[in-house]
Structures are given as C-alpha cells and as structure tokens.
What we know:
Blueprint: H1 3-8, H2 20-35, H3 42-52, E1 55-56, E2 61-62, E3 66-68, E4 74-76, E5 81-82, E6 86-89, E7 94-96, E8 101-102, E9 107-109, E10 111-112, H4 117-120, E11 126-127, E12 130-132, E13 137-138, E14 143-144, E15 149-150, E16 155-156, E17 161-162, E18 170-173, E19 178-182, H5 196-206, E20 208-214, E21 220-227, H6 235-249, E22 256-261
Parallel strand pairs: 1-4, 2-5, 3-6, 4-7, 5-8, 6-9, 7-12, 8-13, 9-14, 12-15, 13-16, 14-17, 16-18
Antiparallel strand pairs: 10-11, 18-19, 20-21, 20-22
Amino acid sequence: MTQKERMLAGLPYKAWMDGLPEESMENAVRVYKFNNCHPEDTVCAERLIRSILGSAGKNITVRAPFHCDYGKNIEVGDNFYANFNTVILDVGKVKIGNNVLLAPNVSIYTAGHPIHPDSRNSGYEYGIAVTIGDNVWIGGNSVINPGVTIGNNCVIGSGSVVVNDIPENSIAVGNPAKVIRQITDEDKKYYFKGTAENIAKFIIQNYQYSTVITDNDGAIICRSVVGGYPDADNKEVMADILPVLLKYQRGEKFTELVFEEKKERNYYSEELNVPVTGTF
C-alpha cells in the first residue's frame, strides 16, 4: 500500500512520502486563491471552493478564511454553510450531509498522533473519518475530533469538544460534549432557548407593546401593558406576563401571543388599531 492508501484506510502513515506533500501544496494554492477572492466576486469564490472540495451539493456557502489539508477528502451536501475560519483536517474522509450549518471557528479534525512519545516521534500519524448527518448546527469554537459521527438533526453548543458519537435529534454541549436533551416537536414553538422566562425577558427588554392573548375564537383573555423596561428581571412586570406565557408553553388553549404598538404608557386604548408585529 502507498502512504496515501494507508492514510485513507485509517492506518498509520507517513505524511512526507508518496506524493502527499505535493498534493497538500496543490491544495494550499487553491485555498490561498479562494481566501483572497474579492468579496464581490461570488462566481469566482464558488468555482474555487468547488475545486477544493471532493464533492459538493447545491447552494453551498463557505466564508473565507477557510483551511483544509487536501480538500478532496471532504464531501458536503446541499445547503451547506460554513462561517468564518472553518478548519477541516481531512487526512481522513469527512462526510457532511444536507442543511448543515457551521458557526465561526469550527474545527473538524480527522488527524491524530500516537499517544506514546516514542511512537509519536517515529513520524507516523493517522486519520479517522468524521461523519456529520443532515440538519446539523454546530456552534462557534467547537471541535469535532477523529472518528466522531454526529447524527441527523443535532445541535452542538458553542465551545464544545466532541470526542464521542452524538445520537440523532440531540443537543450536546461541553468539554467533552455530552447530550443534555433530545430535540422534539415542542422545539418548533421557539426560536431562542424556548423557556417562558427567556421569552418574557426578551419581550420586556426589546418591546414597548401591549400584550394581547386570544383564545381559539379570537376572544381576548389577557391584555397587559408591558415592555420597554431596561431591567429584564423587573418582578412586577414578570409577574404580569410570565403566568400567561407559562400557560401558552404548556399548550393550553391560547392560539397566539401578539404585540400591538403601545401609544400610552399606563393604559390600553381601545381606539388603537395597529397591525400585528410579532407572533409566537
């Protein structure tokens, strides 16, 4: 076997033999050209990134700078998005599915070295494949280590170091990354964190609105003048809105939470007739 064949088979290999340095240098030139593309020349950028990757689906976006060893050992699916400073050490195969998002400074490592210094100093290294499924979001500054498989529909929290496989539909965070919970249909209701407390704080900090809760027939069951307070922990305001949000989160018979523009500070005017500006 050549050293390249050993490398791609996950066996110990020597990176300075059998044409591997030349392949790496050829890729380094392509990466340099991509990273120095003019930001407005999107046609050139797409052509260059596709010349780097082994295969790529439809609608891919890679933000410069991007770095990899060989490039041809990387496969990405449709709707792939890699934010600034993605690093992929692809001495082993890296297979990434459809609809995958990489936040800034994500690193995917297939490369490794022996633990014992005598073995490590021999010059042998290895590459173990990494697989990332469909619909995965990996948070910023996360590291994916050799041999890891991340299942479909997973979220990896920012700053995580993933050393073990992550089962599908999981949220995993930490160093080493551990599964903290499963993703369920309940998560469809929320775009940020998904707790009533956080939603209430977001409303209080960012909106100066009257809050209106309606039932399935459109009848108003709660109307509260809240919002625009710099202190998100304002106990009086939280006491006003939080119970309603908690009921909504539990799935009780509330169809929508809407915000109507607040014209008066201390009361709700029946004369107001403004469009809905937000819906939970």
